[in-house]
Write a structure and sequence with these properties.
Number of strands of chain A: 7
Shape of chain A: globular
CATH topology of the largest domain in chain C: Peroxisomal Thiolase, Chain A, domain 1
Distance between the termini of chain C: 21 Å
Radius of gyration of chain C: 19 Å
Mean pLDDT of chain A: 96
Radius of gyration of chain A: 17 Å
Order of helices and strands of chain A: EEEHHEHHHEHEE
Largest interface: A-C, 54 and 60 residues
Largest sheet of chain A: 7 strands, mixed
Helix content of chain C: 25-40%
CATH architecture of chain A: 3-Layer(aba) Sandwich
Oligomer: heterotrimer
Strand content of chain A: 25-35%
Chains: A alpha/beta, B mainly alpha, C alpha/beta
CATH class of the largest domain in chain C: Alpha Beta
Number of strands of chain C: 16
Number of domains of chain C: 2
Strand order of the largest sheet of chain C: 9-16-15-10-11-13
Structural class of chain A: alpha/beta
CATH class of chain A: Alpha Beta
Number of domains of chain A: 1
C-alpha cells in the first residue's frame, strides 16, 4: 500500500447491532429498531437536535461522538484546523424516499421543509461541524463501491490545505433506517 | 381537548421533540432563542405547514410567523381567531 | 505545477455551446420563465427549464445511444453526457486513458426516478450515473461524485486540482449537472426560498431564488501544451458551523474561504478583475455574502451574480459560472448582475449592474450552501490566445 502522509489516531465503526472503537467491540445489541436511540441514551448525550436528524445524520453524529470522546482532549473548543471528509454510496436515499412520498398527493400537498433539508447527503458533515465547532472544510463524496484507497487519497487531499492538520473522515452510508454503516477515523497529518 | 394541549401534541410530533412531553412546554415561555424550547428557522417553516394543514391558516412569510409563534399561547390565540377548519 | 483548463462546454436552456450562452448573456437574455401548475404542483414558480424536444434532438445527433446501458436516458443523464461529450471532443485527449479521472458534481442527479413506478434503484445512485458517463467514453477508472450541496461544482474543481497536483492523474473531466423535478422544486418551495418573479440578487426588494437546469464541463490538466489560457490557482472550502439550512449572519465560512485564497494564491486584490459570487437573491444568502466580502476587504471589487440569467443551477452552478467568468475575461469584460436594482444588503459591496471593461487577468469565485459549507477559488488567465 502507498505510504500516506497521515496517521490514524482513532477509529470507530457503527453497524446496526454493534459499535466498535479502535477495533474493539464496545456496544452490542439485538434491539435493531432502537439501537441508535439506545446509544444516544446510554451516552447521556443531551442534544435534542439528535431527534430531528435523519438516519444518515444520526449515524454520523453518534459515530463522531464516540470517536471524539476517545480522543480525550477538550471538546467543543472552536477548531479551524480540522476538516470533515465523508464518502458514501447511497447519498441520502432513505430520506429522499420519504420526501418523494411526501409530495405524491397533489390535493393534500404539505411537504415537510425539515425533511427536504435532509435530502442533501452533506448535511451530516454540517451537523458534526455545528456540534463540534469545526470551521475547516466539509465535503461529501459519492462512489459506487467503497474503495479505501480513494478514501485515503481524498483525506490526503484535504490535508493539502495549508490550514488543515487533521480530518474526521471515512465511510458513512445509510441505505435504509435499518441498514447503515459508519466507519470513521481521526486522521492527523505527519509532522 | 383544549386547543393549547392539542397544539403542544401536534408540535411535538411535527418538530420531532421526542424528549419533550406536553407538560414540559410552558404556555407563555418563548419558543425561539436560548430560553424555552429553543426552536430554529426550519421549525418556523414546519409550524407554518402545521397551521395550514390542520387549521387552514396560510402564513406567507417567516417574519409574520415569528410573531405568531412567540409562545404556545400566542399560537393558540391566533388559531382560535383565524382557523378555517 | 500549474493546473490549466484544457476545454469546456455548457448545455443550458440558453444554448448548447459556450459561445451561444455567452452571446446570450451579452444581449441580456435570461432563460427564466414563469410556470404555473407545472407537473401539477399547486403553486407558481419561475425557473430555467430545457425545451425537451430541442434537447432530445441534440442528444440523438451527438450521442451514440447503442453504447449506453439503457435505451431511455433521463434528462439528467442526457445533459451530463452531452456536456462531457462536447468538452472531450474539443480537447485533444483520449478519454479511455487510465490517466484521466471523471468527477461528477450533482446534488440530486436522477432523483425523479424515485417517483416512477418500476425504476431500477441502482440508477438513482449518483455513482452509477458517473460510472455510466465514464464507461460511455471507454474510461475504466472509478469516477467520483461530489455532492456537497450548492457548492459542489466548485468543490469538484478544487478536488480535480488536488488530484492533478498530487500526480495521480494527468486530466480530470469535471462535469456539473442538475435538472429540476417536482422533488427539488417542492423542496425549495417548502423552504419558502422561491420567488415567483425573476430573482433580484443583492437588491433591496429581493424575495427569493429561481431554480435552473444546466450541465457544464471543464477539463483540467497539468499537461500545459501552451494552448491553454486559464489556471485554477487556489481554492478552499470552509464550514461556518452555524446552522444546517441558514448561513452564518457574520459570513464566517465565506470569509475564511476568501481569506484563504487571497493569502495562498499569491494574487493581490488589485490584480483581481471581479468576484463572481453566489448571489441567489434569498434575503439571507446575499446579506451573508455581502458581509463576508466587505470583511475580506473586497468592498471596491466589482461583484456579479449570474443567477438572474440561469437561476440557481445547483450542482452545475460552480462549473457553469466559472466557465462564463473565464469567457468574459477572455473578452476583457465583466458581466452585469441581471435583475439587480438598488443595493439591499448591509455589507458595503460594489455590485455591477452594467457590462464593464477590464484589463485584469484574474477573478474570484464564491459559493455557499446548505450544511454550512462555503467555497472560494481564484482563476488566472496565463496568456492571450
Amino acid at each position: 500500500m502507498k505510504e500516506r502522509n497521515f496517521l490514524i489516531k482513532h477509529s470507530v465503526k457503527i453497524e446496526p447491532n454493534k459499535v466498535s472503537l479502535d477495533g474493539i467491540d464496545v456496544l452490542l445489541s439485538e434491539r435493531y429498531n432502537t439501537f441508535l436511540s439506545d446509544i444516544y441514551h446510554e451516552k447521556r448525550l443531551a442534544y435534542p437536535k439528535f431527534f430531528k436528524m435523519d438516519i444518515l445524520c444520526k449515524v454520523g453524529f453518534l459515530a463522531t461522538e464516540i470517536l471524539l470522546e476517545a480522543e480525550n482532549i477538550e471538546r467543543f473548543v472552536p477548531r479551524r484546523d480540522r476538516s470533515i471528509i465523508f464518502c458514501n454510496k447511497s447519498s441520502s436515499v432513505s430520506t429522499d424516499l420519504k420526501f418523494t412520498h411526501d409530495i405524491l398527493d397533489l390535493d393534500n400537498f404539505y411537504p415537510k421543509p425539515s425533511l427536504f433539508v435532509y435530502t442533501l447527503p452533506n448535511i451530516v458533515t454540517g451537523e458534526i461541524a455545528i456540534r463540534n465547532k469545526y470551521f475547516g472544510e466539509t465535503n461529501l463524496f459519492v462512489m459506487n463501491d467503497r474503495d479505501d484507497n480513494v478514501i485515503s487519497e481524498l483525506v490526503e487531499h484535504a490535508l493539502m490545505d495549508e490550514e488543515i492538520n487533521s480530518v474526521v473522515g471515512g465511510w458513512i452510508d445509510a441505505e435504509s433506517e435499518n441498514d447503515y454503516e459508519a466507519d470513521l477515523c481521526i486522521f492527523e497529518i505527519k509532522q | 381537548m383544549e386547543l393549547i394541549e392539542e397544539l403542544k401534541l401536534k408540535m411535538i410530533e411535527a418538530l420531532n421533540l421526542e424528549d419533550l412531553k406536553p407538560e414540559d412546554i410552558d404556555n407563555d415561555a418563548p419558543l425561539f432563542g436560548d430560553e424555552g424550547i429553543g426552536l430554529d428557522s426550519i421549525d418556523v417553516l414546519e409550524l407554518i405547514v402545521l397551521m395550514e394543514r390542520n387549521y387552514g391558516i396560510k402564513i406567507s412569510d417567516s417574519k409574520t410567523g415569528k410573531h405568531i409563534f412567540s409562545s404556545v399561547r400566542t399560537m393558540a390565540d391566533f388559531v382560535a381567531e383565524n382557523r378555517t377548519k | 505545477m500549474r493546473v490549466v483548463k484544457v476545454s469546456d462546454s455548457i448545455i443550458s436552456p440558453l444554448g448548447f455551446s459556450v459561445e451561444e450562452n455567452f452571446d446570450s448573456l451579452l444581449r441580456g437574455g435570461s432563460a427564466l420563465r414563469k410556470y404555473n401548475r407545472l407537473w401539477g404542483l399547486p403553486f407558481e414558480f419561475m425557473a430555467s427549464i430545457f425545451d425537451e424536444e430541442e434537447l432530445n434532438n441534440y442528444f440523438i445527433e451527438n450521442i451514440d445511444i447503442t453504447k449506453l446501458p439503457h435505451s431511455n436516458c433521463t434528462k439528467f443523464e442526457k445533459i451530463a453526457l452531452l456536456s462531457a461529450f462536447k468538452a472531450i471532443s474539443s480537447a485533444n485527449i483520449d478519454p479511455k486513458s487510465h490517466r484521466i479521472l471523471f468527477i461528477l458534481s450533482s446534488t440530486k442527479g436522477n432523483i425523479e426516478l424515485l417517483s416512477t413506478s418500476n425504476f431500477d434503484p441502482n440508477r438513482v445512485l449518483l455513482g452509477n450515473t458517473a460510472q455510466m458517463i465514464a464507461r460511455y467514453f471507454g474510461n475504466t477508472n472509478k469516477p467520483i461524485v461530489v455532492s456537497n450541496a450548492c457548492i459542489s461544482g466548485l468543490c469538484a474543481q478544487i478536488e480535480a486540482m488536488r488530484f492533478l497536483k498530487s500526480g495521480s492523474y494527468d486530466f480530470c473531466v469535471v462535469i456539473g449537472a442538475d435538472v429540476l423535478s417536482p422533488f427539488i422544486v417542492s423542496g425549495f418551495n417548502s423552504l419558502k426560498a422561491l420567488s415567483t418573479e425573476p430573482c433580484k440578487p443583492f437588491s433591496i426588494n429581493r424575495n427569493g431564488l429561481n431554480l435552473g437546469e444546466a450541465a457544464a464541463t471543464i477539463i483540467y490538466s497539468t499537461v500545459d501544451d501552451g494552448k491553454n489560457n486559464w489556471e485554477i490557482v487556489c481554492g478552499a472550502t470552509r464550514n461556518d458551523a452555524n446552522h444546517i439550512s441558514g448561513p452564518s449572519r457574520t459570513g464566517d465560512g465565506s470569509l475564511s474561504a476568501l481569506n484563504y485564497v487571497l493569502q495562498y494564491s499569491g494574487c493581490k486584490i488589485a490584480d483581481i478583475a471581479f468576484a463572481n459570487v453566489h448571489g441567489t437573491a434569498t434575503p439571507y444568502n446575499d446579506e451573508m455574502e455581502s458581509i463576508a466580502l466587505e470583511r475580506a476587504g473586497l468592498s471596491d471589487l466589482p461583484i456579479n451574480s449570474l443567477k438572474g440569467f440561469y437561476g440557481h443551477t445547483l450542482g452545475a452552478a460552480g462549473v457553469l459560472e466559472v466557465i462564463l467568468s473565464m469567457c468574459s475575461l477572455d473578452k476583457g469584460k465583466i458581466l452585469p448582475t441581471h435583475g439587480f436594482d438598488s443595493l439591499g444588503v448591509s455589507g458595503n459591496i460594489n455590485v455591477i449592474s452594467t457590462l464593464q471593461e477590464t484589463n485584469k487577468h484574474s477573478f474570484l469565485k464564491l459559493l455557499s450552501g446548505f450544511g454550512g459549507c462555503n467555497s472560494s477559488a481564484i482563476f488566472t488567465k496565463l496568456r492571450k490566445l
